């Protein structure tokens, strides 16, 4: 993958999110910025990570929201309308432990069979890190603050609230693994 995939991802995400969901677009830009900072830790996959970060929330776009579960809707859109790279589509489908949220929504088997989780732990963790250390407005935050913000926005008893409470330890562990990998990088 090369930088042209990043340009394509940015054009697609901007077209789908900027006007109808400006706050989601701001978050997306922040997540993509975080991903760009991780380039040295992921060398050969840096363009893939930035592209996945740019497209991770595309399924929120009103015209794409068919199931109401944005990872699945976004992955289907990228696969079906754009013939996107399989690794990219699988990252979008499974970002930030989406399989656990899919379970809360009764969509686990559907997501898992259509878009199996990539067996590339650092890449998967890196996307979690980028998403969970970026505010809804695109600023930087800690994973703990982000989880608290999500709970505050959706409520403890919502599908998202139940999912995020259940997933928080996994999120914190993924963020910790990425921070450890970053600390080990030569300066």
Give a verbal description of the structure.
- The chain has helices at residues 3-17, 22-37, 39-42, 46-55, 70-82, 86-93, 98-104, 108-114, 121-132, 143-154, 159-183.
- It is an all-alpha fold and 187 residues long.
- Helix 9 crosses helix 11 (159-183).
- The model has no long low-confidence stretch (mean pLDDT 95).
Q: What is this structure's SSE topology?
A:
Elements: H1 3-17, H2 22-37, H3 39-42, H4 46-55, H5 70-82, H6 86-93, H7 98-104, H8 108-114, H9 121-132, H10 143-154, H11 159-183
Keywords:
single chain, 187 residues, mainly alpha, 11 helices, 69% helix
Overall pLDDT: 95
* Intertermini distance: 25 Å
Main pleated-sheet profile: none
The helix fraction, in percent, is 55-70%
Number of helix segments? 11
Q: List segments where confidence is low: pLDDT < 50 over at least 5 consecutive residues.
A: none
Number of strands: 0
The class by helix and strand makeup works out as mainly alpha
